[in-house]
Automatic annotation (TrEMBL):
Entry keyword annotation includes Phosphoprotein: yes
Family according to the record: Belongs to the major facilitator superfamily. Proton-dependent oligopeptide transporter (POT/PTR) (TC 2.A.17) family.
Species of provenance: Hibiscus syriacus
Localization (cell): Membrane
Keywords: Membrane, Phosphoprotein, Transmembrane, Transmembrane helix, Transport
GO molecular function, one term: dipeptide transmembrane transporter activity
GO cellular component entries: plant-type vacuole membrane
Stated name of the protein: Protein NRT1/ PTR FAMILY 5.12
Membrane spanning residue stretches: 110-130, 150-166, 199-218, 224-245, 370-390, 410-430, 494-515, 535-558
InterPro entries per record: MFS_trans_sf, NRT1/PTR, POT_fam, PTR2_symporter_CS
Record has Translocase as a keyword: no
């Protein structure tokens, strides 16, 4: 029984229910449920995420404009570079999560990653000052090597990928650390944790929305130096805010045993080594001891319970719990794989959607134009408006109907968003066909710099549907990959979720490059020429819509067969 000191110096026993199992406070003491964690701690962490997303999206959303503008790259090359960087930034959380779960812990990893993030943003700001050096100071000094445009490109891409490394450590750990502030074994905190993922994404999109509206305008109309410098300052503020919450956080306790990566890896290695061992012997070893219905899946991993000679020699075999951990991770693979096309679709909102908008009438008044990249604000605005409706109205109504704490299951939520994602591509294709038709009617096909007499607000429906899709699928994937992995692998779980979008961005870049070479080779007409009025973007959008439909059918098949972990089934029952 835990003991605490009251004001009179007498020791008062605390109920076991008041102690959060597996957590300590910042002084290494057992955590009382009411003193640490919960929404008080989560609010600091959500605030940090708002600032981080403001900084990241301030760069990501308008990167294609910077590459095709100051750096002078072609549309297709810029799109590939954006997808490559975005993909790298989304895959690096796997490295950050590994470091956090195996060595530093989430709290320390967040601090180190934040410092790397700030350094990258500072160098990015420096790179944006170099063009002005070329035109002034460089003319007065014989320093052509130091002032060459090539130096600007080197520093720019180095700092850009440094930001990706910082984000790679920051992203999975901050969200997992936020979810750690809620005890999934407590019914009330379990509901609060599900709600946390909604409000986490609400905060994330709030930061993104402000970046789209303010930073994109500053970058397009005032200065790229200022447009990169402000995110750097914001990240410094975010680090200070995070440190201010140190005394309120719950810190997960690491068990003194093998790394979870070693445990799970050993299961697969032993299962492969024992592939000749009788399945009957392995099943007999596991019979009556496997803890859940999901244990009946991937029974070939039961061979890790036996030594190569068919015996169970201590130290050379895995235990039941380790085999179940490996199965839990393996069950995620089909859901991960059938989410990739969704990620490819999402990648278009910061590349071709933006280039579409740049050719259209963006006038708000006679003298003010909305930056093309700021149109992405409609995605964030849709999410910011829809999440309170979803969490405060839909979830209670659905909960009363289905009896499930979250109203609907995580996989149902994800699938609904994927369906809307396919709809967004169909809308984008129809809008692009209309834009090309108007360009032809007005004789603007060979005038890439001319403004198409079509309001940019015609793009709003595809942005809004994309926002609704994100609100459902992105939040659902976050909660799913956090909830369905072993406790010690939750940073990795969220990194796996982020890796969907990393691989999706790479696939988008590969697809664009392949189509560009296939259609533009031998003097052919590429789908993605620099003159967007001669492009065939609508072909590409229809292709993505068709791939989304195929993906959705596969997703429904695997989602129907998926078996949730035992804790989730108990809460949903």
């Amino acid at each position: 029984m835990a003991i605490s000191n009251n004001s009179s110096g007498a020791e008062t026993p605390l109920l076991v229910e008041d102690i959060v199992d597996g957590c300590l406070d910042y002084k290494g003491r057992p955590v009382e449920r009411t003193s640490c964690g919960g929404w008080k701690s989560a609010s600091f962490i959500i605030g940090v995420e708002i600032a981080e997303r403001f900084a990241y999206c301030g760069i990501d959303s308008n990167l294609v404009t910077y590459l095709t503008g100051p750096l002078g790259q072609s549309t297709a090359t810029a799109a590939v570079n954006v997808n490559t960087w975005s993909g790298t930034a989304a895959l690096l959380p796997l490295l950050g999560a590994f470091i956090a779960d195996s060595f530093l812990g989430r709290y320390r990893t967040i601090i180190v990653a934040s410092l790397i993030y700030i350094l990258g943003l500072g160098l990015l700001t420096l790179s944006a000052t170099l063009p002005s050096l070329n035109t002034s100071w460089c003319q007065k000094a014989d320093t052509s090597i130091l002032c060459s445009p090539q130096l600007q490109v080197i520093i720019f891409f180095f700092s850009l990928y440094l930001v990706a490394f910082g984000q790679g450590g920051h992203k999975p750990c901050v969200q997992a650390f936020g979810a750690d502030q809620f005890d999934a074994q407590n019914p009330e905190e379990f509901k609060a944790k599900s709600s946390f993922f909604n409000w986490w994404y609400f905060g994330l999109c709030s930061g993104t929305l402000v970046a789209f509206l303010i930073l994109n305008y500053i970058q397009d109309n005032l200065s790229w130096v200022l447009g990169f410098g402000i995110p750097c300052i914001i990240m410094v503020v975010a680090l200070v805010v995070f440190l201010c919450g140190t005394t309120t956080y719950r810190y997960s306790v690491k068990r003194n045993e093998k790394s979870p990566f070693v445990r799970i890896g050993q299961v697969f290695v032993l299962a492969v080594r024992n592939w000749r061992t009788s399945s009957i012997a392995a099943d007999k070893e596991a019979y009556g001891t496997l803890p859940s219905a999901g244990s009946e899946q991937y029974k070939f991993l039961n061979k890790a319970l036996l030594a190569p000679d068919g015996s169970k020699e201590h130290g050379k075999v895995c235990c039941i719990g380790e085999v179940e951990e490996a199965k839990a991770v393996l069950r995620l693979v089909p859901i991960w794989a059938t989410s990739l096309v969704y990620a490819v679709v999402l990648a278009q909102s910061s590349t071709f959607f933006t280039k579409q908008g740049a050719t259209m009438d963006r006038s708000i008044t006679t003298s003010v134009k909305i930056p093309a990249a700021s149109l992405q604000a409609f995605i964030s605005l849709t999410i910011v408006l829809s999440i309170p409706i979803y969490d405060c109205i839909f979830v209670p109504l659905a909960r009363a109907w289905t009896g499930k704490p979250a109203g609907i299951t995580m996989l149902q939520r994800i699938g609904t968003g994927m369906f809307l994602s396919a709809i967004s591509m169909a809308l984008a294709a129809l809008t692009e066909m209309k834009r090309i038709k108007i360009a032809r009617e007005h004789g603007l096909v060979d005038k890439p710099e001319a403004t198409i007499p079509m309001s940019v607000w015609c793009l709003v429906p595809q942005y809004v549907v994309t926002g609704l899709s994100d609100m459902l699928t992105m939040v659902g994937l976050q909660e799913f990959f956090y909830d369905q992995v072993p406790n010690e692998l939750r940073s990795i779980g969220l990194a796996l979720y982020l890796s969907i979008f990393g691989v999706g961005s790479f696939l988008s870049g590969i697809l664009i490059s392949a189509i560009d070479k296939a259609t533009g080779g031998s003097g052919g007409e590429s789908w993605f020429p620099n003159n967007l009025n001669k492009a065939h973007l609508y072909y590409f959008y229809w292709l993505l819509a068709a791939l989304s439909a195929i993906e959705l059918a596969l997703y429904f098949y695997f989602a129907k067969k998926y078996i949730y972990n035992r804790a989730t089934r108990q809460m949903q029952s």
